[in-house]
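ESCALATION

Customer reports they have been waiting on this structure for their group meeting. Please prioritize. Original submission:
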Amino acid sequence: NPQKDRASKIVSYLGNIIVNGHNDISGRVSSNSTVEVQIPISNTKSEKNNFVKEMIIDYPTLFGATEISGLTIDKEICNKKTCSITVKKEYQGLQSWDQSLVFTSSNTSLISIQGNFSSPTVNLSQYDKLTEKEIKDIVSKYFSVPSSSLKMRSEYVLGLGSTQSHDYIGYKLNVGVPGKGPHEVRLNSRTKEVVEITPLRMDFFTE
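Update from on-call: job pushed to the front of the queue and completed.
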């Protein structure tokens, strides 16, 4: 019975979820910490935890995928005891920067799923497409520096952001600002204003 096999597989994946108190995650770094220790992935451990990827690919609707939205595996990190896979969501081709699910597993057991997805509150088909010059002008105005002095450290990417419970479609990019160093900048394509900046460590970049 195909339906029974499918149900059995889902139960097999989800039946070992333990939200709190699992021995394999005792003493791990709090999710609120700004420090993320990245230990090289063990091929053996990574292979044992491939069932998480299979679950996400086989049953995307279990985790919020719909006709207009999809899931993308963003990164995988393994340490001595556990592996974590971060999954991002996209809506009509626009990646959501502020929504993710983190799957934590140990060997063949799924320990926890943290995070949430919520449908955007903006019309995904209505936004202003900006040129690189327009984007640089907006960023330079925010930092009160000449546009010509900004150094583009990345491509500018269109996506879906959220600030103060307000969703917006905008652009994200990394720029070098004279006297202030490199920053990740997000701007709203409709209001043409910077909505969020994040200072970046200088040694992340090279001239």
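Sent to customer with the following note: The beta strands are 69-78, 83-91, 94-106, 109-116, 151-152, 157-163, 166-177, 181-188, 193-199.
Escalation resolved.
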